[in-house]
Amino acid sequence: MRDAVNTQAPAASLWRAPGRWGLLLLGGLAALALAVYNLVELRTAMSTGQLYDLGAFLASGRAVAHGLDPYAVYVWTPAGQPLPNLDPPAALPLFEILGRLSDAQARLGWTLFSGACYALVLFLLWRRGGVPKRRVLWALTLAGFWYELQLGQIYAPLALAATAAWLLLERRRPILSGLFIGAVAAVKPQLLVWPALLMLAGAPACALAALVSFAGLTALPLLRYGPHVEGEWLSLIAQSHGAHPGATNASLLAIGTRAGLPWAGWAAGACTAAVLVLVRLCRRPSRMLTSSLGIAGALVLSPISWLGYTMLLVPVLLARPWTRSMRLGSLMLLVPPGYLILVMNAVGPGAWSVLLGSLYSWALLLILLSLVREAWGLRSEAGGEPAGSPVSTRDGAGVRQAATSAQG
Questions:
Q1: Angle 389-163-330 (CA atoms, 0-180°, nearest 5)?
Q2: Closest residue by Cα to residue 306 from 244, 261, 354, 371
Q3: What is the pTM of this model?
């Protein structure tokens, strides 16, 4: 019987091999199609002369340089909708520098700079080790990255800072890691969820360093431009009416807004925040898993989480094995927003429009659900990562995968 099993096993593997190669070929063709589509969309966006979000940043930087309100409306979308700068005063020094360039110089320079930042993110994570090639291919076709380039947004340098914070925390450099976390949170305050969970995780050095960095970068623009810019920003934020219902808003709260039940979105957000705190206090996941929960939780709970925010998840998703729900959510994040909007327009208003228009929101929820399930089944061990954690540990010899030692 043993011999029969041994002779049948190679035949079964041969039958499975064509199917595997077929899936790889199909995946490669899909990645190629996505790459071509994204490159064409980027070329089209840059050839139209429209600056989109970058135009709002340039106008804001030029306004503050001349003593004007940086949060007034100076730019409109091609559809005629106002497009103000929604980023806090911590971003104004960068926008002032960009504002000194011509529109064409700023557009080309910022696109190249953003691409270089994202390439450095992938290089650092690849150099860390343990990243499959197909994950890199996934990251290169991430819809949020290409949409960020098309609109001239600022998520690529934020993703680089978040990746630096992630790697430094992994290497047990909590203070330097916290400084980078605080820098990201100063530009995107919803990311304060990250150091808050780290404080609960027993990492006070990292959390306090993040708060110091956040406070310093928030205060510097007030000293340079005057405290009134903070009031102007808060006034603009107060005029926004909750979560934006657009398809590129991946927030949990946006699902309720699209369904006409904004209170349901806020209630679901409150429950999600309670779950994150409960998981941290009851199950005590590792600091790296807590960081994953902090990043994903911040994106889910924020009233506005544009598609470009998903670039902050790259270190999270490249650092650990994918469960089925995480794989499905990650693949959903590859869908170009242009396709999604076309489908929404085709189905018209109604339940299907809400379901399809919340595709990116469902993706983030699936990823967060996978992380919560992982955390609920783990308890931290004294002085290190939990057993079986995919996060690498480091010693004087270099990189050593904890998962490899578990295979023993």
A1: 65
A2: 244
A3: 0.85
